[in-house]
Amino acid sequence: MKSAAGFSRFFFLQSFFIHLRHYFPFYFVHKPLCTRHKKDSLQWSQVFFCRGCFFLYAGVVTSLSSLMLEWNEVPPAILNRVAPIGFLLIISASIPDIYQHWPRPVKDGLRFATGFLPVFLLILSVQSGWLMGLTTTMLIVLVWKIFNMRRAPLSASGCEGCEELDGGKVCSGYRLQAERIMKVENILSERAMYHLKPNTRTET
């Protein structure tokens, strides 16, 4: 018979992998999976992704990959003009109160551009000095914080007016997650009973 400590460690690892297996499809999505918010998510096989984050990280990967290009051949004067103008355009178009009214393809482009921006920070740091790069980085962090503060209440109001809110049931946007939660609870309950009562075999 397993000791209490041994059972605790074994059951913890087992429950961790069970949770990972059943909840993994929803780890990367930030909006309900209902009809209203369907356009804000992407799906690959059974895994869902936040569409905004997908294009944001795609921009980051693209910017890092572009470091292999011969940026030294681009005149610094051009970069010093393009980067600030591009930054101002992205920031202006991404103001949460404005951003929420853009069609989805425009939002995707803005998210991609936001992810791509670090390559310009690196270029400015190398060609214009570390002080310019540091200042630009601090400015972007400050803007990001301010935008997040404004974005939170807008996101919270995303389900206002939905007829499912007063239905007394789990809304369709979280039905799949709720089903997985119930399934995991049942599996863990059966496993716990099996290990606590070693002479009892539970059919699975």
Question: Can you give a write-up of this model?
Answer:
The chain is mainly alpha-helical and 204 residues long. It folds into 2 domains: 1-37 and 173-199; 52-155, no CATH class. The protein is 64% helix and 4% strand. The protein contains 8 helices and 2 strands; from the N terminus they run αββααααααα. Strands 1-2 form a two-stranded antiparallel ribbon. A hairpin with a 2-residue loop joins strand 1 and strand 2. Helix 2 runs parallel beside helix 5 (104-116). The longest helix has 27 residues, at 130-156. The radius of gyration is 24 Å and the shape is elongated. The two termini are 21 Å apart.
Counted by DSSP, the helix tally is: 8
Topology, number of strands: 2
Head-to-tail CA distance between termini: 21 Å
Element order: H for helix, E for strand: HEEHHHHHHH
Helix content: 55-70%
Write the layout of secondary structure elements.
Blueprint: H1 4-23, E1 41-44, E2 47-50, H2 51-65, H3 76-93, H4 96-99, H5 104-116, H6 118-128, H7 130-156, H8 175-196
Antiparallel strand pairs: 1-2
